[in-house]
Design a protein that fits this description.
The complex is a heterodimer of chains A (about 325) and B (about 375). Chain A is mostly helical and about 325 residues long. Chain A is built from eleven helices and four strands. Helices cover about 70% and strands about 0% of the residues of chain B. The chains are: A mainly alpha (about 325), B mainly alpha (about 375).
């Protein structure tokens, strides 16, 4: 018989809520990876840095609007403003990156755009590190404290806001992809660029749109990350970037609902999963092993189910 | 008739045939003309030549993009550190010459360990998995502090002895590194021109076609990983012994970036490219740190003031958008850390867009990047 779990119910429900919170951020970033992969069959290595730039832009906007002195209902407006600024920053960075570093390499050998993307990633990361003298910045601590509880679940306002706004953004994106002309063009290019262009789809423009949509999601994720974790730094894009990629692979790279689900699965695996492993005799994994769990999951999935855990079609074999 | 042609006196081609011995001989003369700091700088360049040659096998020959090369370097260095440092729990006082093959062996086993699971993966997946793998190794070194002493590191790692001489001065290390680099360069060049090298090239060009032509892709990809890892391990053993102290901080992602940038900017698959790449990417930032260089730069203070005035004008329009140039004395130090990577990143993009075969491409690679691929459908109107 399996021994009963040693920790209390409220501990597990806390872990669950934490998992959903980080999972939301992974899911938002993962969308950018999966959509770009869908149309270009390439990993946009610089996407983690696009997320980082969004976070810094949102930070700048909040500080300009008054930082820690903000109070009352203005806070809601300030956060909305920060999100818009972050989206604008991420989107413009992403469009420039696509134009300068990826588009000239469309016909190049496979390794070329990949190396170029790594170059962009290194460039942006160290540029911001240099400009900030490698010091962390701290998001203004303005979000109202307090929490709601429902049964064993207790959720802080910030967690609720984070989860709700990511779900809203994802729903919006999903509607754009499924319901609009633009979305149809994106799906067509992902399916087959040649045929799409024969049907009158402007492939280059569609690719730019994909970069814009992905970057907008990353920008939102940047602000949410900042509000929740407060500490941001130039190197912050690296680990969430890899994890979001893991999430995209988990859900089947190229699949939009897959990336969303993958984000939550990964978030939960890191929190609930790690604690479950700790329940095994002789296992004691501290918080610092979180990243190891994510990477191990990535490698395992890539080996045994490269099309992702939910995939039906096997068109994009790894 | 052809016989007589071949006996003609020294032609440029003859000189070309001896270009490597001449180059090595010239390298050996350097310590007689420059000061110790320069020799020390060149030891580091030589170390990165070795690492670059190793990664060149994986990336340049076999076309497998490995972003976690530091893992093998760390494997070699920690083999040396754990078996010789007095601070290590398993210190065995082994000689450098015993550990050298052992470190190479362990590193290549780590290479196989990484290679096996990633075998079925395509280029971009491979890149991200190896990236994660490099990070895992570093996290492991930090977190298993019962074994590795965590971020405190392992110190007092002994130096090698050769024919009764301890390799202790920079000049001795310099010759030691040259000997090691020449050995590695010779081995990789022979491998490249062998049946194995041709198999790697076939895999790099098109794995499916290579498999269809009867190349055992599994075997050769693993061999590429193991060979690259072995060379990385060799570099690690030498590094640990040269510095005498290792800690996880020395095995960060930045080392992988350094080595990858050397291989790509120098020219994938090219030995001279690796040397040029190491000199530029490892040598120049160190040269900028020299006193002589900052004294020299101090003469150009007026230029810095002029540029700063210009930057100030931009800053006046867009407050906080742009920094100022630092004083000459601090340039080198700044270039040695973050600024260097800004330049590396930009160079990687520039090289890929403008000169994808690198600064000093191998002849085959040059052809490969020049030939026209069928236009990809994405570029359609």
């Amino acid at each position: 018989m399996h021994p009963a779990l040693t920790l209390s119910v409220s501990f597990w429900s806390d872990q669950f809520v934490n998992g959903l919170t980080t999972g939301s951020i992974y899911a938002l970033i993962a969308l950018g990876y999966t959509m770009v992969y869908g149309v270009l069959k390439m990993i946009n290595f610089a996407h983690g840095e696009v997320f980082m730039l969004g976070s810094f832009a949102g930070y700048g906007a909040l500080v300009v609007m008054g930082g820690n002195d903000l109070s009352g209902p203005v806070i809601a407006l300030a956060i909305l403003g920060a999100i818009i600024v972050a989206m604008a920053a991420s989107v413009s960075a992403s469009v420039v990156i696509e134009r300068l570093a990826y588009r000239p390499l469309r016909n190049a050998p496979r390794l070329a755009p990949l190396i170029s993307a790594i170059g962009v990633s290194i460039f942006l990361q160290y540029l911001v590190l240099e400009q900030t003298s490698a010091r962390a910045k701290f998001y203004p601590d303005i979000f109202p404290r307090g929490s709601l509880s429902a049964g064993p679940f207790e959720i802080t306002y910030i967690q609720l806001f984070l989860i709700a706004s990511s779900v809203a953004m994802m729903a919006l994106l999903y509607a754009i992809i499924q319901r609009t002309r633009l979305g149809r063009a994106i799906r067509a290019v992902a399916e087959n660029p040649t045929n799409a262009s024969l049907m009158g789809v402007d492939v280059n423009r569609t690719i730019v749109v994909v970069f814009i949509l992905g970057a907008a999601m990353a920008g939102v994720a940047g602000v949410l990350y900042g509000l929740f974790f407060q500490t941001i730094r130039g190197s912050m894009g690296f680990i969430p970037g890899i994890k979001a990629f893991t999430a995209a692979v988990l859900g089947g790279i190229g699949s939009i609902p897959g990336a969303m689900a993958g984000g939550y699965v990964l978030g939960l695996a890191e929190t609930v999963g790690r604690e479950l492993l700790n329940e095994l005799p002789g296992v004691s994994l501290g918080n610092q092993w979180r990243d190891v769990i994510a990477f191990t999951l990535l490698v395992t999935i890539l080996i045994f189910r490269p099309t992702g855990i939910f995939a039906q079609r096997s068109t994009t074999r790894a | 008739m052809p016989d007589r042609v071949s006996r003609l006196p020294s032609t440029p081609t003859d000189l070309l045939r001896f270009r490597w011995p001449i180059f090595i001989a010239l390298c050996c003369l350097i310590p007689f003309v420059v000061s110790d700091v320069w020799v020390q700088m060149l030891v580091f360049v030589g170390l990165f030549v070795i690492l670059g040659l190793g990664l060149n096998v994986v990336v340049g020959f076999a076309g497998l993009l490995d972003l976690g090369y530091v893992a093998f370097f760390a494997a070699g260095a920690y083999t040396m550190g754990l078996l010789t440092s007095p601070g290590s729990p398993i210190d065995a006082h082994l000689s450098f010459w015993l550990i050298l093959p052992l470190g190479i062996l362990i590193a290549s086993l780590v290479g196989l360990l990484l290679g096996l699971p990633v075998l079925p993966l395509r280029g971009d997946y491979l890149a991200i998995v190896t990236l994660g793998f490099g990070e895992i190794i570093r996290l492991f070194l930090i977190n298993r502090d019962d074994l590795t002493r965590g971020s405190q590191g392992l110190s007092a790692i002994p130096r090698p002895e050769l024919f009764g001489y301890e390799i202790d001065s920079f000049t001795r290390w310099y010759y030691f590194i040259i000997a090691a680099a020449v050995a590695v360069a010779f081995c990789t060049a022979r491998l490249r021109d062998s049946r194995i090298g041709r198999a790697w090239e076939a895999i790099r060009e098109d794995e499916d076609v290579a498999a269809a032509m009867g190349v055992n892709t599994t075997k050769y990809k693993l061999l590429a990983f193991a060979t690259g890892a072995a060379i990385g391990g060799l570099g690690g053993v030498i590094y640990a012994s040269f510095i005498g102290f290792i800690s996880p901080a020395a095995f960060s992602l930045q080392v992988s970036i350094d080595v990858l940038a050397i291989v790509i900017i120098g020219g994938m698959g090219s030995t001279p490219g690796v040397i040029v790449g190491s000199l530029i990417l490892i040598g120049v930032p160190r040269i900028l740190q020299f006193r002589e260089t900052s004294d020299l730069l101090a003469n150009f203070g007026w230029l810095r003031d002029a540029l700063n005035a210009l930057l100030g004008a931009i800053d006046a329009v867009l407050p906080g958008s742009i920094g100022r140039l630092p004083a000459a004395e601090t340039w080198g130090a700044r270039l040695a850390d973050d600024t260097r990577f800004i330049i590396f990143g930009a160079l990687l993009v520039l090289v890929m867009v403008l000169r994808p075969s690198g600064l000093w491409p191998s002849s085959r690679r040059r052809l490969e990047f020049a030939h026209d691929e069928p236009p990809a459908p994405v570029n359609a109107p």
